[in-house]
Amino acid sequence: MIAYRSLRVALLGGGSVGAQVARSLLEDRDELAHRVGASLDLIGIAVRDVDAKRSVDLPRELLTTDAERLILGADVVIELMGGIEPARTYILQALNSGADVVTGNKALLATHGPELFAAAEQVGAQLYYEAAVGGAIPIIRPLRESLAGDRVKRILGIVNGTTNYILDRMDTQGDSLEDALATAQELGLAEANPSADVDGYDAAQKAAILASLAFHTEVSVDDVHREGITAVTAAQIASAAHSGHVVKLLAICERLIDPDSGVEGVSVRVYPAMVPRSHPLAAVHGANNAVFVEAEAAGALMFYGAGAGGVETSSAVLGDLVSLARRHVVGGPGLTESKHAGLPVLEIGKATTRYAVTLDVIDEPGVLATIAGVFAEHGVSVETVEQSVATATPGGESTAILVIGTHGAREAALAATVADLAANRVVARVASVLRVEGA
Amino acid sequence: MIAYRSLRVALLGGGSVGAQVARSLLEDRDELAHRVGASLDLIGIAVRDVDAKRSVDLPRELLTTDAERLILGADVVIELMGGIEPARTYILQALNSGADVVTGNKALLATHGPELFAAAEQVGAQLYYEAAVGGAIPIIRPLRESLAGDRVKRILGIVNGTTNYILDRMDTQGDSLEDALATAQELGLAEANPSADVDGYDAAQKAAILASLAFHTEVSVDDVHREGITAVTAAQIASAAHSGHVVKLLAICERLIDPDSGVEGVSVRVYPAMVPRSHPLAAVHGANNAVFVEAEAAGALMFYGAGAGGVETSSAVLGDLVSLARRHVVGGPGLTESKHAGLPVLEIGKATTRYAVTLDVIDEPGVLATIAGVFAEHGVSVETVEQSVATATPGGESTAILVIGTHGAREAALAATVADLAANRVVARVASVLRVEGA
């Protein structure tokens, strides 16, 4: 097969992913031309500073600070700048000029996705974004196409490598959160300001993207209930391990029936949860990512791999580019984003989850009955109770530790239960409340 | 979005997958129409016997024995009959009449793939086959599109659920091969004649399909080195477990340099091998499948899920149908199969693998030196030696068990080593030779 035409590719962003993409386009030119049936000509790389130091040497003559001019001459624009602006404006310019776009910009998609998809649809241009979730892991295309004839019931995703690294170290090395975070920062896995990762913002953006795709429904990052890992303690990790669980920061996208109205909706939430050790997600170590999908017909599927890294993520970008370029070559428009279902997004209070509640209680007769009574009052059904041996506090009071596992309960009922427990005379302290998923 | 036209879908085969596909097309008609932008009209189901008993009730008026006539009126033909003929003839008829085709027929693709892809390319029709490998697991599309800009180095696949179930039972329950097979047969996981599974034919077909896609090279099932699991013993499983390994039937597709000619080629082989317990594939239990892919940029990826089952596999078929129908709706031809690389397929003697060799040896001084000498003679480097305590045979001779782990060695060198070991006076028996992969 001989390349019979060429496609002009503009790259926006010369960071770790962008530089790798540029390198592959230049070094693997012939091989890519064979795969596409056309040559992919990198016509320029828009950067903020052409003199900045980069991990990969880029040809000086390709660098430019004039992104808008570069976009005007392109058939395909690859946006790897990140952030909302000017990325949003550039992508809209590209689409409106008829160019196809590949992006890995999760923040932008999770906030302005509908606007971008509408712009693409209007002119019949393509917008691909495999790199936005799970780095190198193919998850967008499987959801968008492979499962297009199935119905996704639930997604449990480990979609943030930094927090998985931290929680994995706490589990396997017994580190405190602070020590594990410091190690992650030393290794370059966490930023100096780690908030985007540890507070769950990054995972929430990815959850919004996954839920939108899986449920054919527009879900914005603002619809996502978000809790980070900063409150996770070494004691919680140890207690989870003791009961055969591991704590993971999960992005959960679930199709469910609103228990109040009976209407079908979706629940999208990010929080640390206990996962049984036997679950495939429990074996996802280090900074790896994995997305566990439960579909009506397909059953349980899992997609696993490197969730970040410039080289790894460049694989997803190039896969999008080649797929898109092939369609460009053979003509005809491609996929449009499906949002026909338009399901309501339910607040977290509508979701039903199992919980593990750890209490320091006064060690006296009748305590268990009192505690059980509080749960029963709020309609929260208790599945397991584990009581440790009593210990004496410095104040001379004798206390015991109770770990109570519940059946599925609603957020609101559990919150009310915990509030009442905290106020109860026999409870010295609510030591931990953690959800249990994947069981 | 409103369906603005319709696509006529013909189904060939009313078995467990076919019946599920038919049911979904009928029951989920509206939802599928929304996703595609056109209605999918099931115009008929070609079966051998319209009166046969089926797992799913199919409308009698859709059943026909006249497949050829059905094909003539179809926009899309779904072939789920299995076997070579008449499936091959029907698919060629469909493609030549301009219809797109979805198939799950691994046997046909692994033997006549190039003929079918050429026929599709000639008329600009599409041939999709996600269901042919890994049941519900999206693996064909990720290889074909997501990794289209990357370079696959190696695939290690658990692609046969029956043998994985048997080996998993032997590992976790201590069953013999015979008992595990009998249980699989009772559960309907293995056929009365289990040869296609236990002799590795099914896995070899899937290996050929994966290798063709991953390496852009035509690989036929005849190119695949194939060993089944019938020679795997409970003792081998126990010995593997002892050294932290689990035995899996692997489909291995590898890009490598011919050590003799220096030319790049591919090696495709199926055999039972020891996998370290820490490897993600070791955690694939029961009848599940998983495909572990190592790519140059993406690094290690794994795709996991149900490898068989009518309902599960119907998800892959419907995903293909919807993807294909969407392209049908928006116009323009789609993907053609890429075989531009055309790498030579190397015989197994060219591949380098690590081995674990278990020997019953005479217990006398100097035996280890003798054994080590035999390995050295053939240039096979020994990595580990483990010697068990000596035991006396009924004949009064004292023997010991030696387990020798090698570094990477070529098949031919190892075979010569084993032949010499078997003929050596100090070796009572070569108890086991197993390859080690994924380490």
Task: Report on this structure.
With 439 residues, the first copy, chain A, is an alpha/beta fold. Chain A has three domains: 6-128, 3-Layer(aba) Sandwich (Rossmann fold); 140-306, 2-Layer Sandwich (Dihydrodipicolinate Reductase, domain 2), CATH 3.30.360.10; 351-436, 2-Layer Sandwich (Alpha-Beta Plaits). Chain A has 14 helices and 18 strands. In chain A, the strands form two sheets. In chain A, strands 7, 8, 9, 10, 11, 12, 13, 14, 15, 16, 17 and 18 form a twelve-stranded mixed β-sheet that branches. In chain A, strands 3-2-1-4-5-6 form a six-stranded parallel β-sheet, sandwiched between helices. In chain A, helix 4 (87-96) links the parallel strand 4 and strand 5 (100-103). Chain A is elongated, with a radius of gyration of 25 Å. The mean pLDDT of chain A is 90. The interface between A and B is large, with 60 and 59 residues. Chains A, B: Belongs to the homoserine dehydrogenase family. Chains A, B: Catalyzes the conversion of L-aspartate-beta-semialdehyde (L-Asa) to L-homoserine (L-Hse), the third step in the biosynthesis of threonine and methionine from aspartate. Chains A, B: One of its GO terms (biological process) is threonine biosynthetic process. Chains A, B: L-homoserine binds at residue 191.
